[in-house]
Amino acid sequence: xxxxxxxxxxxxxxxxxxxxxxxxxxxxxxxxxxxxxxxxxxxxxxxxxxxxxxxxxxxxxxxxxxxxxxxxxxxxxxxxxxxxxxxxxxxxxxxxxxxxxxxxxxxxxxxxxxxxxxxxxxxxxxxxxxxxxxxxxxxxxxxxxxxxxxxxxxxxxxxxxxxxxxxxxxxxxxxxxxxxxxxxxxxxxxxxxxxxxxxxxxxxxxxxxxxxxxxxxxxxxxxxxxxxxxxxxxxxxxxxxxxxxxxxxxxxxxxxxxxxxxxxxxxxxxxxxxxxxxxxxxxxxxxxxxxxxxxxxxxxxxxxxxxxxxxxxxxxxxxxxxxxxxxxxxxxxxxxxxxxxxxxxxxxxxxxxxxxxxxxxxxxxxxxxxxxxxxxxxxxxxxxxxxxxxxxxxxxxxxxxx
Length: 402
Known about the structure:
Blueprint: H1 3-18, H2 28-31, E1 38-43, H3 49-60, E2 67-71, H4 82-91, E3 96-100, H5 108-118, E4 123-129, E5 146-149, H6 155-161, H7 172-190, H8 194-203, H9 216-236, H10 240-254, H11 263-270, H12 274-286, E6 290-293, E7 308-311, H13 314-319, H14 326-339, E8 344-345, E9 352-354, E10 358-363, E11 378-382, E12 392-394
Parallel strand pairs: 1-4, 1-5, 2-3, 3-4, 10-11, 11-12
Antiparallel strand pairs: 6-7, 8-9, 9-10
């Protein structure tokens, strides 16, 4: 292969790289062991996986042509293979390859396994949809790679991304035990916290909001369609009718979250059976479009009926036309931020059981302990509260976990 054949993707790489700034670096950047030979970074579309790769290249490679970034949905791969690309690059001395949207390449697991086996010095970092699942059969990579997950912005990251203030993340124990002093420190820098928090709930989860502030909800709708119309069939090989039913399921649930609808009624509306309905439901969870709350985190692996269903984050509530009820917004925020770092279950009492031991009720400033009184390790997560007291903790502070 001659360089002129490769020039289109080199030009695309250079163009992308020229638009990348280092103004804000996601914390995951420093957690990744970049020298590992095979690295997977998963996350929902729009959270910044491509930006993370290109920022790393900018920071780690003084000569950017010592590596190559390419998206595997590029039309170049309709007439060339990944091996064609690796053969030419390896002959030129390139030892680092960054592959975006890996799920668009046919039999990608086998292709990457073969490259790692054939080229002893080659390092590959690839990104994929949050729906991506490693198959144990053909081209098994599960024992070869280190995998990472990139979520959307936490409330803490949003404040830093906006240039408002920079705070460290806190573990759950620090928030439970030291929330008063932490809240005072945050309030000292921010003044009023609630206006920033309200803005985050509407548009702060996906970093691209800055580029499309006035078209954010439309862009988010387009991303949801792209995930279901392109990523879903590439990963699960579903049919067009199944895709349409899954989209309808998402929109029906958006009008009912977090109350659990009668599943048989939902399946009847979709003209599908229980097994297929559950597969679609859990596909929406893997796509980071829904969060399914069960009474045991193990149930999420067995396709059991969830106790409650939420949209994945509060930004999706506004974009998909969900009923904006403040109680639902509060619970969605809490579950979204907590489940990124700790297991969360549906308890017999209260709203959420975190890490198997901390019981929470979520509500407004006037919420009481009536529903969870006399329960050890029980807490209130309260909205419209800038500083708490004892087991009454500001809701916004749970956005400082990562």
